[in-house]
Amino acid sequence: MLARLLHLEGIDATVFEGEAAPNYRSQGGTLDLHTDTGLAAMKAAQLWDEFLKYARYDGQYLAIVDKDLDHLFVRHPGNGKEIAGESPEIDRSRLRQILTESVPEGMIRWGRRLKKVEGKTLIFENSTETGFDLIVGADGAWSKARQAVDPTLQPQYVGVGMYHLTIPDAEETAPETCKLVNRGSLFAHSEGQRLTVQQMGDGSLDVHVTFRRDDPDWMKEEKCGIDSTNLEQVKKELLQKDFSGWCPELKDAISSAEGPCVPRSHHILPIGTHWEHVDGLTLIGDAAHLMTPYAGEGVNLALEDAMLLAKAIANASNGPNTLDEEVRLFENNMFVRAKKVQQLSDNLCKDWLFTPGAPRSHANYRSSLRMDNSQAPLISNNRRDSEGEFEDEDLASEIGIAQPKSDRPGIFVLALTFAAGISGLLFGYDTGVISATLVSVGTSLSDRNLTSLDKSIITSSTSLFALLISPFSSVLADKLGRKRVMIYADILFLGGALIQAMSKSVLVMTIGRCIVGSAVGAASFVVPLYIAELAPASHRGRLVTLNSVFITGGQVVAYVVGWLFSAFGSKATGWRWMVGLGGVPAAIQLAVVLFMPETPRWLIKEGRMNDARHVIQKVNGSSSSFDIDEVMREIELEAREEELAQNSRPGDRSFLAGWKLLFSEGKHRRALAIACGLQGLQQLCGFNSLMYFSATIFTIVGFSSPTLTSLTVAVTNFIFTIVALGLIDRIGRRRILLYTIPIMTIGLLLSAFGFSFIDLSASTTIQRAEGTGSAGHGGIAATIILISIMLYVASYAVGLGNVPWMQSELFPLSVRSKGSGLATATNWGANFVVGLTFLPLMDLLSPSWTFVLYAIVCVAGYAMIWRIYPETAGLSLEAATALLEHGWGVR
């Protein structure tokens, strides 16, 4: 890694490797690299794309069991409880291959076994090399370079021995063990013994059999009584002695092993190892801070060492400090970093193998201990305790894990969600009120009834301007804040409502609708973003869904208002009151939003740390299940990554820089494809054609009170959106769509079947039907249509009506606003198409074939979701975005 980084800086370096060739010996098991250490180094070395070819994000299943195979701790990939993507697995041999192939040929000199270092001279078994500015010892546990730095630094035995075994072609040779491992890791323990089985990329299982031994030379034949490299002797010894009391399923992992058997003893350097700087010489990796493998941090710390040392060397080439001054600063930093990880590793070793009650005690420790994300791979896999560690709540309680006291969001975050949700009410009201308006306006806007084209233009103009404004809303949300965009949207809502109420022509009415469309476009983008960035991860799905409840509630209010004014109001002015009343909620929200806080993510991005901390504290209340410092660190890390990404593109800090970033990286393009696909599907499935034209449809069918009949559809939508509140986080986003879209398809096909019994002749049918109020035929056909539409609406409300608005989960902070804005624009673009084409399609194709067309769209959408949409329920925003680092993230 160090050689690669120095090569990128144009600094000459030579690697002297003791092994004869890259594949000289087995490279051991699988590694998990962590976000701000190992993965950061891979990105700095420009090896990220190569790394992704071999990284296994599907290897995050983890089970801790006892010797009887009782599961004490389980983490399931895809159940929404893990932070997937933070610690991808990669085989050690693959990582070594990536690194060795990344440097120019000849930079690595193989077969150069070091005997000692004298000054700036390297003395090998058969040669001597000299003339170096800096010698870096990365020669492992028994480092010769370390002896030149400080001869007193000697590895200490920790009382633990192990065998490294392999099960090749495990699915064929050990299928039951494969099932237990589940493509991830299985840690089995009894007091003083440990069995670790991990999935490897080549289909084999890596097995580490660990036990306590007093003598570091325990593997010598005169001490253990067997040839410790003879696999058959070793298996017999282990199964008859150390692991004799273990269950057969776990013993199979030992008996199924084939190939080489490698015995080892575990040694460490003293915790807090440090030395006086030696000019021209330093150490990194195990040579500097040898530790046991139980924290999973050795390779991550070593890669971070290489990354920071390369930076120090580059600084010396370009800055005021000398090389030794920079190396001294690097060493002092490394001593601090390494001490924390050494202590962690030592604690975990003692807890696994020397603590009475293990592994039950370790399961407790794993869940209750909180620490810096970069140091918690085997404790929480970079996951907050508040997001749930255990598959079984009763089991967690039995072990003594503190459960959150309440599964409800706090009053403060609920109040903010309700206040922001008024925008959803306005959105829904506008969608619903136009249905009643179109059948009530009569000749108020011209000397004739409105044509299908007039109605399509009036209806779709809102969607068109929502489409145009959404992308600009994302830019404003980044520059001015989420809160201020909501204020501007309220002003537009208020102005648009007044213009519509006073309009006397189709043109003026359309202008008012365009202004309202601008408000809807801004609000529909910023409100879900505002709620998502405020909400705790465990409640985010339900809180964002509350916005959808407000939307559907607004539609219900609109239909009630429409029915009241149609039935009891003045035919000349009733519709004006319908559209004008939309300004009332806007005025109320405008007054409330002025006192609402900004989101902590935007505040941190703007450097307002104290304000962000205050908001996070108020949002989470006094809950003991969250760590405010950890939440702050997580957001700060993402903000720093964004800043680094922007700074790494000199000359790209213009308006277009963020858009370039959105389209230049694969993970961002994947997020955009999913978000835009879901938003497009939400509209192209035809739902809003029912909202805009339900009164028109029920007039055609022959209902005597089409506006009142439309109210039943709106109420169905509202009720089932509330149902979605209890399901969206529990079932998950992906699964709920896969359950509900087939039901939507059935509803559409049943509607098409019902329409086939209704006689509609000329293209003027719709217009004539509205004039007479009875073009269709009631009875069975009308009942089929009404019931099937209600079935369609109910399934839509539970799934597709809510899930696309979770789009901000998919994007990292650096492109979240722009990605969400473009996805929202896709929604409004599709909405515009549906609003403009629905009535012409009804005339051109017939109602039956129009509904069949929407059913075909649903089938295509189902296939898309099945293929590319991963589960994000329960993940923090930062974790959910990591799912798309390596691909589509679907398991």
Describe the protein's architecture and organization.
The protein folds into two domains: 2-155 and 269-399, FAD/NAD(P)-binding domain (3-Layer(bba) Sandwich); 411-882, Growth Hormone, Chain: A (Up-down Bundle), CATH 1.20.1250. 57% of the residues lie in helices and 9% in strands. It is built from 35 helices and 16 strands. The protein has a seven-stranded mixed beta sheet with strand order 4-3-12-13-14-11-15. It is elongated and about 105 Å long. The two termini are 31 Å apart.
Topology record:
Elements: H1 2-8, E1 15-16, E2 30-32, H2 38-44, H3 48-54, E3 62-66, E4 71-75, E5 89-91, H4 92-100, E6 108-109, E7 114-118, E8 121-124, E9 128-129, E10 135-137, H5 144-149, E11 156-167, H6 170-173, H7 175-181, E12 185-190, E13 193-199, E14 205-212, H8 221-224, H9 231-240, H10 248-255, E15 258-268, E16 281-283, H11 286-289, H12 298-318, H13 323-353, H14 360-368, H15 393-399, H16 411-440, H17 452-480, H18 482-502, H19 506-534, H20 540-568, H21 574-580, H22 583-593, H23 600-605, H24 609-620, H25 628-647, H26 657-664, H27 666-684, H28 687-701, H29 706-725, H30 733-755, H31 765-772, H32 779-798, H33 813-845, H34 847-868, H35 877-882
Parallel strand pairs: 1-6, 3-12, 10-16
Antiparallel strand pairs: 2-5, 3-4, 7-8, 8-9, 11-14, 11-15, 12-13, 13-14
